[in-house]
Specification:
mainly alpha; 86% helix
Length: 117
């Protein structure tokens, strides 16, 4: 599930970059503006695209850090719960062993008892 999110985020970023480039190229080719105006527009668009890509990279970094912290916390919780569970099983095993030895002494036959009588 986590790898699907990484793939979709990566695909989104690639889509934004390709779409922005294609839009800028289309505007350049179909624009009835002079060369100076076109260069100015390209500079503005490239600065906007650079800012958006930096923002997306920062957002991706924050999200991945958040996900890594959540996974680390959850795995620590699981380890703690498993250790507690193992400890309770060991405690139950000891009480069963002690309890069963008491039960066997209570129900044992006297030494002079003969089953064949």
């Amino acid at each position: 599930m986590m790898s699907e999110k990484k793939v979709s985020a990566k695909g989104f970023v690639i889509g934004v970059l390709v779409g922005g480039t294609a839009g800028a190229l289309t505007a350049l080719l179909l624009s009835p503006k002079s060369g100076k105006e076109i260069r100015s527009g390209i500079n503005v668009q490239s600065q906007t695209l650079k800012k958006k890509s930096n923002d997306l990279a920062q957002l991706a970094l924050e999200k991945s850090s958040s996900i890594a912290k959540t996974v680390s916390d959850q795995s620590s919780n699981v380890v703690t719960k498993m250790k507690d569970w193992q400890g309770s099983l060991r405690g139950n095993r000891k009480s069963v062993e002690v309890g069963s030895s008491k039960d066997s002494k209570e129900h044992s036959f006297p030494k002079d008892y003969d089953e064949n009588k």
